[in-house]
Amino acid sequence: MIKYLGSKRALVGWIAGVVDRVNALAPIRSVADLFSGSARVAHALKARGYFVYANDHNTYAYVLAQALVEANRDDYPPERVQPILESLRGSPPKRGWFTENYCEQARYFRPENGMRIEAIREAINQYEDPLLRAILLTSLMLAADRVDSTTGLQMAYLKQWAPRAYHPLQLQYPPLLSGVGKAYQEDALELAGALKADLFYLDPPYNQHSYLGNYHVWETLVLWDNPETYGVARKRVDVKHRKSPFNSRASAGDAMARLVSQIQAQHILVSFNNEGYLTRSELEAILGEWGYVVCFERPYKRYVGALIGIHNPRGEKVGQVSHTHNREMLFLATKHRAVWDALGHGDSSLRSE
């Protein structure tokens, strides 16, 4: 999976474990992940046998969900996809707009890898099957992520090349799963009322940081639209106006209340942390209007970019680390009093740490 701010890499077992315990008390067949991002949680839940609806408004995240959630490995096995990846690997390097913007004007990738990325991306255009195309794009994103020169965010790049940036780009078969799911690219506030699932998993933006701004290179790589860019970081200009109400302190509470009120499910599971605009008590109040609520907490090390300090777009350190750990919270809201009784009072394995 790609490096991702807010990624649940170290928390996915905890999250999926809560879903499994709820399932043991009130059977769950389907899960809707309305802010799927890197698709890490949706992918893990699909691997556990749940039918997963994965949604995200950003195009790169939608492509990841198409490959990692919707696509069926049985339809796109390695023996079908690997020869295509081998063919793409043989594409002659090409220096064009992408290399100029993201390897020379900015320094996300070394130029030799940028030219490989550019040539492969051009070659992917020949494939019309949308799921195959998503699989190939996912392979390219994962390969590019392994040779980038950032701390995991595309708000800036490192002043000196990261050691991994010198490695040659290598396409690999992505971690597809057998079985099907469904990917969407919609505004979560508009899709919530149209979907029905047994459990909704919500991992909305916590604060002012825009995922489009943080991962604008992936958005451009997938759209391949040569957008107008700005600043040292060469961000897409649409970063300036494509904002979520969850990125504003003034609107985040109302947005969450509106979202929750539309959900048609038996359970809601919400990820949040203590750096977010909404407090634990505010989230408990919103979810309490919908069902019975219990909150689990645990400490969690902050993402690597925060741990090494604050940097400007040129990769120069301009600030100090204020803290190294957050409190991660999982809020379970349920329509079933028996589930709340069991998990809120009788299950020590899920209690706050």
Q: Would you give an account of this structure?
A:
The chain has helices at about 10-25, 40-45, 60-70, 80-90, 95-105, 110-125, 130-145, 190, 210-215, 215-225, 250-260, 280-290, 305, 335-345, and strands at about 30-35, 50-55, 180-185, 200, 230, 235, 265-275, 290-300, 310, 315-320, 325-335. The longest helix is centred in the middle third of the chain and has 16 residues, at about 130-145. The strands form three sheets. A seven-stranded mixed beta sheet has the order 3-2-1-4-7-11-8. The protein has one domain: Vaccinia Virus protein VP39 (Rossmann fold). A hairpin with a 4-residue loop joins strand 5 (about 230) and strand 6 (about 235). The chain contains 14 helices and eleven strands. The chain is α/β, with parallel strands linked by helices and about 350 residues long.
